[in-house]
Structures are given as structure tokens and as C-alpha cells.
Amino acid sequence: MLVEFSVGNFCSFKDIQTLSMVAAPISSKNKELDEQNTFQATPKLRLLKTKAIYGANGSGKSNLVRAMMSFNTFILGSMQDTLFKALFNSPFLFSTNTLDKPSYFQIIFIIKKTTYRYGFETNNKGISSEWLFATPNLREVTFFKRINQEIEINNRHLKGAKKIQNLIGTSSPIFKNTSLFLSVLSSLNNPIGLEIVEYFDHFFIDLTNSELKNLENAKRNISINTFRKGHFREETSDLLKFADSGIDYIGTAKKDIKDDTQDEEIIAFTSKVFNEVDNKIEPIVLPFFQFASEGTKKVFDMSPLIHQSLENGDLLMIDEFDSKLHPIITKKIVELYNKNKNNAQLIFVTHDTNLLDYRLLRRDQIAFVEKDKFGASHLYDLVEFKGVRNDASFEKDYLDGRYGAIPFVGNFETIFSK
To answer: pTM for this structure?
Structure first.
């Protein structure tokens, strides 16, 4: 369960900004909404199931998703020599004070009733600091702290610590300045390291226009492979059908259907065609990626992520959530997460103001990203604004500029009047 994620000196985020999934001590007029949109993570902590992020174009919304993806990807693969430079060569560029300072990442999360706080800082040479704390009982304790290549390990709380210390040294081939100690713990089969890395392996992050090469193709291949193996096939078919895409059923078919995009068994769907000779409606089978709309393809690509997340109680973070999708579909997906019983969490970046509805989202479920005059992105929640009623028209007030995070648009007509 995600509690919060913080990032600083990365892309457009200069100062440390925090995305919080903690439910604020507020009460809307809809008690059912308060109950279904939040869940009790610990006796003293209630978390949100969904969070919407709004802001103008270029405000830094996608950079927040990029930060989470870079953080998560690096945890899962920091043992690879080339991954560090691909992910972390992006400090805040519009200040001379930040160019030589490290980027900052920290996450607070819960596994099996234990709250963990993990993070690291990176500069152009590698990992400058790293830390792991946990609250197994009432007080937070240190598991390990790292400064450059020096590690301080809590022998009492980190199982197998002495063995790890004997294996790790400044000349160790597995402990490099560009590798995380958490990843090293996992590679050495340390129980805590394995458990935490496995937790991050269940993060699903969909970043649009990512700088990571071939990401779009990778996402499509994952969706296709998952579907071909039979995982969530019925659920995907139902989701497409309920999305009113004109698809009755989706499955696999032999290569006898003309489709140049696949080398083997293809994904195909059944729809309806009107037979004017017999004056009746008949089924027709068509190659999916050749005839389906772009919005329908996006639903297909998202489907395994949504189903795995909802089924296992995992986190799903989506950039440009509303792109290519009808507002009714995005609303239904948000409702799915708000009502899910497995405490799955959805964080999404969107411009769809249709979702700014007090009957769908609480005030603490709505966040904004806005750039200041120096080009730095700031993240804040709607609940921070005083005097906003729980049943206010969030959409109208946002478009009127009451909450900020909207573009300052000039007079377009003057562009063409010349």
C-alpha cells in the first residue's frame, strides 16, 4: 500500500514535492463515498484508493510519473550498469544551485502491517546516499543507512546482516556506486530485500511518451503475451464489450485472417455485420490491431494492468489517463477502483474535468501541479484550500482558475489577424 512518494531536484521538480495517499480528516456529505473511497491501512492510518492529478500542459504532471517510473525501474534493475545514466541524468536545470546537487527520491509504503520508509539520492557519479527505515511496532527503526559506498547496517533488525557485511566491500563486483544496496540485498536472497523488491515489482506505471526506448512496443507486447497465455482473457473481453467498442468477444485466431502485424497466432475479435441479401445480422471475425480503434486498443493495453492491480491489490499509475478514452469510460474505471475491496490504488494524470465531481472524488483525492515563474513544479491538494465546500462544483471552480494549475491563454485571434 502506497502512503506517499517524494521527489526533488529531478526534471521540473526543484524542491522536494510529496504525493500523498493519506486520507485527510474530512467528511463529505456522502458517508458512503468516505467509506468506499478510502480504507484502513493501519489502526491509525487511512489511505485513499484513487488520486487524480491536474495541471496545465508542461506543468510537470508527466515528470511526476516519470520520477515514480525511474525510481521503481531502478530498484528492479539497478544491477545493470547502463540503467543509472538512462534514468537519472535529469536534475532541475533552471537554477545554478541545483545542477551539482543530488536528485532525491523517497517512498513510504506498507507491507504486511509494517510501514517502510525507503529512499536514495543520486548525483552524476552514482548513489550518494540511501536509507531504509521501518516501523514494525510503535517506533521507527533504522535497517540500514548508506553514504556513498559506506554502509551502516542494523544487525538486530536486518536479518543476515553480518553475512551481508562480510560479502560487501568497496571492491565488491555486485556493490557498485551505481547500484542500490536494496537491490544487492535482494540479489543475496535477504528476506527483507526480497520482500521489498517484490513489492515494487507489483507497481504498474504507464508513462506516455517515455524516454525509455520502445516502451510503447513493450507495453503492447506485454498485453499481447498476457492475453495469449489466457490470463484475464475473459475479463479483457468483458471490459471491451462493456466499453461499447462494437466488440462482442476477443480471442485468438489462426493466421488465415489477413494481418501483416503478427507473425504467429493473431488477436482477433468478433463483431456484427448486416447481410443485406438475407436481411439479417451475422457475426464477423476481424484482426484486432488492424480494425480496432485507437481508443479500443488503449483499453486492451490497459486491461491486464487494471485486472492485475484490482485482483492483487496493487498500485496502478497512469499518465494521460483520458487520452483516446471517452469520459464515461474513464469515470467507470475510477469507480471500479473506488469500490474495489482489495485496496488497489489508482493514481492518474488527466485533463478530464468531467472527473472533478464531488460525487466521485473527495477533496483529498484531487491534486494539482503548477509551475512557478522560475520553472519549478509544485504539487498540492485541493483539500489544502480553505473555504471549499464538500459539495462545491470542483470542475467549474477549477476552470475558473480558483485552484490554479490552468494555462494562461492569450488571445489566439491576434495570431491570425495579421
So the answer is: 0.88
